[in-house]
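Example 9 (inverse folding). The structure is encoded as follows.
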């Protein structure tokens, strides 16, 4: 496992981070004992950055139990503002209650990173003003060390870095075999603003797996992206390689980010992701795969309010 500094913070993070949404039951039932064991396994494999959210069901509570006696081994990040598929509340009072609840569940007196979760689903003015001011107040009180925001649309992520005064920013599915928008568009802004970019969704919400996403028609990607993913899956099958493994390799090793989040509830997937981070890429194979990408304008999808895309 390799480690790097996250943006302009003083946080050193593992190149592979552990996303805990599956532990809270978002993608199927996971027993509490199995969830705790998987967190311990991630730590033992050298992962030091753990990401969670109130939106992830019981994930915060389970993570808090898993970290008893091991809190000082990790960089711990959670979020606030999103509490269900369509339940968003970024008002200062709600953010304050959310953070207090997260601290109790996580059994800690401070967060290393606190982020506003999926900001593109609401008008951005109050997020960049009132909600951001509350984040700063929470940071100044020592309840968190650094602040950030998360989301998908390139326009919103760019605005957040330029207008909101962030330490970190988490975005997903923009540094994949299907899309290099993170490297082309977001990384230069992050460098200019001193923001630490957190990469996520190496397999593009399941598209870059041998059998495609389990989200089916609910996946937000358009047909050009889906078609490219199917072509990549066919090519990987012809070469007898695991598309998800290559997708993880690419995202971790080519994103340019200090860390890439991998969310899983299974030990074998966690270990495969660690192996992917440490196994050199086959440059010829990657070049052949990325040649199947759709045109740049067709690589992204709409998320949240139309005006935020």
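The amino acid assigned to each position is listed next.
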């Amino acid at each position: 496992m390799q480690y790097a500094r996250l943006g302009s913070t003083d946080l050193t993070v593992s190149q592979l981070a552990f996303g805990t949404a599956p532990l809270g039951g978002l993608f199927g039932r996971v027993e509490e004992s199995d969830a705790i064991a998987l967190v311990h396994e991630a730590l033992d494999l050298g992962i030091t950055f753990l990401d969670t959210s109130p939106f992830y069901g019981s994930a915060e509570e389970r993570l808090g139990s898993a970290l008893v006696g091991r809190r000082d081994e990790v960089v711990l990040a959670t979020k606030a503002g999103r509490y269900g598929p369509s339940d968003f509340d970024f008002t200062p009072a709600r953010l304050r209650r959310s953070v207090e609840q997260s601290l109790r569940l996580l059994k800690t007196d401070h967060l290393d990173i606190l982020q506003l979760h999926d900001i593109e689903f609401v008008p951005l003015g109050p997020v960049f003003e009132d909600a951001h001011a509350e984040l700063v107040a929470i940071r100044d009180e020592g309840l968190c060390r650094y602040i950030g925001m998360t989301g998908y649309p390139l326009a919103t992520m760019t605005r957040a870095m330029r207008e909101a005064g962030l330490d970190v920013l988490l975005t997903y599915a923009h540094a994949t075999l299907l899309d290099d928008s993170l490297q082309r568009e977001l990384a230069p802004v992050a460098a200019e603003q001193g923001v630490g970019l957190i990469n996520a969704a190496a397999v593009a919400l399941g598209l870059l797996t041998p059998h495609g996403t389990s989200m089916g028609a609910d996946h937000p990607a358009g047909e050009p992206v889906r078609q490219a993913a199917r072509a990549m899956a066919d090519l990987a099958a012809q070469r007898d390689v695991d598309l998800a493994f290559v997708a993880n390799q690419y995202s971790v090793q080519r994103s340019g980010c200090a860390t890439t989040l991998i969310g899983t509830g299974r030990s074998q997937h966690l270990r495969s992701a660690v192996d992917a981070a440490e196994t050199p890429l086959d440059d010829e194979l990657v070049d052949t795969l990325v040649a199947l990408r759709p045109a740049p304008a067709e690589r992204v999808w709409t998320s949240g309010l139309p005006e935020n895309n």
